[in-house]
Amino acid sequence: MTSHDPESSPRRAARAEAERLATAALALPAAPVEDTPVESAVPTRRERRRETPAPDAARPGRSGVRRLAPVLLRRRLAVVAAAVIVVAGCAVAIGAAASGGEPDAATEAVAQIDGPPPVADDGIPVPQLTAVAATATPCDDPVFTAALASGDDAAVIDAAGGGQAFRAAVASGIAPCVSLSDPNREWLVVNKQRPYDPVDYQPSDLVMPDNVRALEDSALRAPAARALTSLVKAASEAGAGEIGYLSAYRSYTTQKSTYAGRVAIGGVAEADRESARPGFSEHQSGMAVDIVPCNGSCKTLDDVAASPQGAWVREHAWEYGFITRYAEGRESVSGYEPEAWHLRYIGPELARAYHEGGFTTLEEFFGLPAAPTY
Asked: Residue 267: inside a domain, yes or no?
């Protein structure tokens, strides 16, 4: 009876050949190099002795199967690993198909590992920045600047687009070429925080108003004098009565005497509420006038508010370029108690914008801070 060798059986040989072919068909990555010694392909005498079956290997009751060689064991492990990879890839593909083609977290992770998406043919899009147009300013308008240089205040306001547009440009700060401190301009603002420069400024075009009763020999700048003549005539024709005036232009020297007299009567605090210090008075500009009501004879400044003349002026003075400079209840802004008799000429266009805008102080009209004190 011949002994049967398990390694030489046809079934065993066929299975070994199938495993060899399957292993060769897989593109497995190269095994990492380890520090352990590489096994010799040629078995040593001791290994041959170990692999030789024991004398009782063919005895009944024994399997007779020898242990698998290390090389064959490694091949089987590689086959199992490759199968796991294939199964995992199929699972990912099936999951993507089930989700409607949208990648899941695993697919996105793989995409991240693979690197960024390809750049389009036209390159990476560049953000488009929209240029912001600079704020339009009258100071960039040659017509406006030419009128400003000529000294024609009416032409300047017309070039700006009218009184309201001029005021808005100045108050918003986009017209830095317009100075509210220029004493030769109708839009001059003088208050307790804004003195004249020079402090003893004197206008050069002072004239006496025509056909207006003057209680003092006090002139006005030519535009203001003409406007006062028109105002007085219109008030008379409207039946409001005659309007005269007590004081118009006062020089720096005259204002020193006027203010000192108020201080002598009521002290500094009281004088500052009703009279300007020299160099700070609107009368020095030649564009302010203190009116009085006249009916045969003229009354006092304190009589203006309750007179028909005073009522008419409050309604119509703006039509002739005048405003009531120190209004009721505005002392905290203007710095002075109400003066119904104190008219200030700012020109017809600005006076219209002042009236239609409901303003009560020049400080607010031009966006300036309040000036209650020095």
From this structure: yes
Return the CATH number at 251: 3.30.1380.10
Distance, in Å, from the CA atom of 70 to the CA atom of 323, rounded to the nearest integer, reads: 113
User: Residue 320 burial by CB count (10 A; 0-12/13-18/19+): exposed, middle or buried?
Assistant: buried
Residue 298 lies in a domain: yes
Task: Show the domain range for 323.
Answer: 199-365
Which ranges in 222-330 belong to alpha helices (H)?
Answer: 222-237, 252-274, 308-316
E strand map for 277-370: 288-295, 297-298, 322-326, 339-345
Split into its structural domains, the chain has a count of: 1
Beta bridge partners of 344: 288, 323
Cα–Cα distance for residue pair 306/317, rounded to 1 Å: 16
CB 291 within 8 A of CB 245: yes
Cα separation, 371 vs 334, in Å, equals 6
Each residue's pLDDT expressed in tens, for the chain with a length of 374 residues: 444 454 445 556 555 565 565 555 544 444 444 444 444 444 544 444 454 444 444 444 444 444 445 555 566 665 555 555 555 554 544 454 445 545 554 455 445 555 566 666 666 666 666 665 556 899 999 999 999 999 999 999 999 999 999 999 999 999 999 999 999 999 999 999 999 999 999 999 999 999 999 999 999 999 999 999 999 999 999 999 999 999 999 999 999 999 999 999 999 999 999 999 999 999 999 999 999 999 999 999 999 999 999 999 999 999 999 999 999 999 999 999 999 999 999 999 999 999 999 999 999 999 999 999 99
